[in-house]
Amino acid sequence: MRSMLNTVALVLGLVVAVPAQAPGQTPPKPAPEVANAADPLGRDTPRGTVLGFIKAVDSENFERAVQYLDTRASPKAAQKLARDLKEILDRRLSAANIDLLSTKPEGRINDDLPLNIDRVGQVPRAGSPTDILLERVQRGDHLVWLFSARTLASVPVMHKELRPSWIERVLPGSWLEVRILDITVGQWILLVLGIPLVLGLAWLLNRLLARVFRVALFRITQERTDEELRATAGPLRLLAAALALAVWASWATLPVLTRVFWHRIAVAAAIVGLAWLLLRLVDIAAHLTQIHLLAGALTGRLAVNQLLRRVAKVAVVLTGGLALLFLGGINLTAALAGLGIGGIAVALAAQRTLENFFGGIMIISDQPVRVGDFCKIGDISGVVEDIGLRSTRVRTIDCTVVSIPNAQTAAVNVENFGVRDRILFRTTIGLRYETRPEQLRYVLAELRRLLYGHPMVDNQSARIRFVRFGASSLDLEIFAYVLTADSVGFLEVQEDLLLRIMDVIETGGTSIALPSCTTYFARDPGLDREKARVATATVKGWRDEGDLPFPNFRPERIAAIQGRLEYPSPDSAVRAQRSP
After folding, report:
1. Which of 106, 132, 163 is the last residue of a domain?
2. What whole-number distance in Å separates Cα of residue 38 and Cα of residue 44?
3. Could you check whether the bond before residue 549 is cis, i.e. omega within 30 degrees of 0?
4. Are residue 341 and residue 364 in the same domain, yes or no?
5. What pTM, to 2 d.p., does this model score?
6. Less Cβ around it within 10 Å: N or C end of the chain?
7. Of 457, 75, 13, residue with least CA distance to 260
8. Does some domain include residue 250?
9. How much is the pLDDT for 501?
10. What does the buried/exposed string (b/e) look like for 40-53 if buried means 16 or more CB atoms within 10 Å of the residue's CB?
11. Which of 240, 225, 309, 315 is nearest to 270 (CA)?
12. Which residue in 425, 377, 441 sits closest to 404, CA to CA?
């Protein structure tokens, strides 16, 4: 069992990522020449040397373990040195140091050490900490990494300074001898007893962080968050468990590879818990912001709130995923470089998706429509329910939901009925041709009186005019704005106006014309001979005087008659109003 666990731990250790060089760091030192042949013991890299040494000691193959040491001591002394060094690593070396070991043949070449020296870690001591160093040396045809002679010289002294851990002093010795998964029974008991401590720590974290989150969210959203913050209990428990697991792995005096394993489990749990917590906080902040915007009638910002929510959640998931990949041994520098090259291909393959994404940003920023508006996008009419990163969802009059790609929404005409402050009432009424002029004047006057007096009609824009002689009717056009932005309210006012218009027409003694053709049977009275004689004589006089007004009047004649016709007519109310 122990050998199997060590093998699993070794495999996990071999897949840890190499930290990328930070921007602004000094250029690395040039790497030395390396031999082409691989070392059969895996000593080509610092990490291979350390893990190979630990594996050899754990399997009690001390003859192999000695080959990872740069020593000229006798075989017996060298084996004791290997055993003591392993105990020092188990007790005093941090698990994080194993994860930072280089997997390159040249080692870490951007640190403060000489070119062929790498640091495994530091062992804390009473005076100053002692470095555990590896040195690259020539062994036959290979350049290999070995624990340096200087480090091995200080091993006996460091080993004498080791003291039993507190758990070894408290628990019976028999509990420290039986191991399950390379962990003693006493350490498992310590882990089980720590569960109530973990729950208590989670409760305390929840109480403390809830106060901080409550204040921060109130400043962002201006809303109370007591009920919503209950959703953060799960992530906080996971963070508390990850912290407790990391503390237990450090205090329980576990072998170094076992500590590396549990350390990675704790870090992975912490990453997942933190990402989970941030996702919950983003949802809470977006929900409370939406409530605040609805209360303040700021519906135009709802789409922006939803976009920020989605972008923030995507950023949290991507960051958490990259952190887990780094923990799992993926070289993020190479991965990001590959994304940069592959991003071009992805952009070409996903042109429509990117077009919809940027179209959504334009819709949200320009706000031609907002969530809750009744609008017409192209030939689709309905209420906007959501503006997403890819499409805009519209609930139509038939109560169906249509998803319109944002690129299409940004390219077509968008008519927004939700931003109007009044609705146009415009209709044409055709009266029968039998309507007498005085009847027509009566209807026009009464309809104007109706529009001016109606409390739901804007009388500044209201008008009704006799506009044309239609094919079968005398056409009157009504144009007015109804003082409501609600479609249902407009239909009520429109119905009231139409009924009142019918009453006025009936009171005037006429009726609405139907599309028709009327045939009249009557005796032809013939032409008025006297009026025809007068008209003919008038035209003959124009011709005799050389003043026939065809194809037009002469300019001087136009100037003489221009503006001479009385308008409005002498009996008009407008003329009476203008007179002094």
Report:
1. 163
2. 7
3. no
4. no
5. 0.50
6. C
7. 13
8. yes
9. 94
10. ebbbbbbbbbbbbb
11. 240
12. 377
Same domain for 339 and 196: yes
Question: What ranges in 328-405 are assigned the alpha helix state H?
Answer: 332-349, 351-366
pLDDT at position 6: 38
Contacts of 145 (CB under 8 A, 6+ apart): 43, 44, 45, 46, 48, 49, 107, 118, 134, 135, 136
Q: Does residue 176 fall inside a structural domain?
A: no
Pair (357, 335) in one structural domain: no
Contacts of 386 (CB under 8 A, 6+ apart): 306, 371, 392, 393
- Looking at residue 336, what is its pLDDT? 63
CATH number for position 428:
3.30.70.100
Same domain? For 320 and 407 the reply is: no
Q: Are 51 and 93 in contact (CB under 8 A)?
A: no
Residue ranges in the chain modelled with pLDDT below 50: 1-36
- Strand pairing report for 117-123 and 130-139: antiparallel
The answer on 450 and 310 residing in a single domain is no
Residue 121 neighbours by CB distance under 10 Å: 21
Instruction: Domain of residue 136: give its range.
Output: 2-163
Provide the domain count of the chain: 5
Sort strands 474-482 and 130-139 into parallel, antiparallel or unpaired: unpaired
Pick from 351, 572, 579: nearest CA to 445:
572
Residues 6 or more apart from 124 whose CB is under 8 A from it?
A: 92
Give the pLDDT of residue 478.
94
Q: How far apart are CA 101 and CA 110, in angstroms?
A: 13
Which of 416, 438, 471 terminates a domain? The answer is: 416
Residue 366 lies in a domain: yes
Instruction: For residues 353 and 389, give the distance between their C-alpha atoms in angstroms, rounded to a whole number.
Output: 9
Q: Which two tokens stand for residue 451?
A: 């529009």
Q: Are 545 and 412 within one domain?
A: no
Q: Other C-beta atoms within 10 Å of 400: how many?
A: 9
* Location of structure tokens 């390396």: 34
168 domain-assigned: no
Q: Considering only CA atoms, which of 258, 187, 252 is closest in space to residue 7?
A: 258
